[in-house]
Amino acid sequence: MHLEIITPEKRLFSGETELVKLPGTGGSFEVLMNHAPAISTLAEGKIKVKEPNGNVTYFEITGGVVEIKSNNIIVLVDSTGLV
Questions:
Q1: What is the separation of C-alpha 65 from the centre of its chain, rounded to a whole number of angstroms?
Q2: Which helix (H) or strand (E) is 43 found in, with range?
Q3: How many Cβ atoms sit within 10 Å of the Cβ of residue 62?
């Protein structure tokens, strides 16, 4: 899957992933390969990104939105920091 994490200031992440865990406003959820198309709002919390090489990175966010479609994930966040 291809993931983009973007803030108003810059692109924080762009690359291939195996798993993305997101803090949805209705509760956290994970996205794996071939996930159904979806759009969701995001709450304050951490985004977990697991890359194919096994690296795991966390991004602390204050909120945002995500679009999932055809194994492409675009996350637009208000502000973030690397955890």
A1: 9
A2: none
A3: 13
